[in-house]
Design brief:
Distance between the termini: 63 Å
Number of helices: 3
Number of domains: 1
Signal peptide: 1-26
Shape: rod-shaped
Keywords: Signal
Largest sheet: none
Order of helices and strands: HHH
Region (Disordered): 24-45
Helix content: over 70%
Oligomer: single chain
Amino acid sequence: MRHSRTVAAVAAVTGLFLAAAGAASAQVTPGPVTPPSPKDPEEAV
């Protein structure tokens, strides 16, 4: 049972990590594209 629990824990952590990485990459692509436009002019001014 210890082994199965370890495997399940590793699988869960791996799944969460991959999900977080996927969500981060998905947000990073469209996210920065919108803010830089308004932020640049504000900082420049």
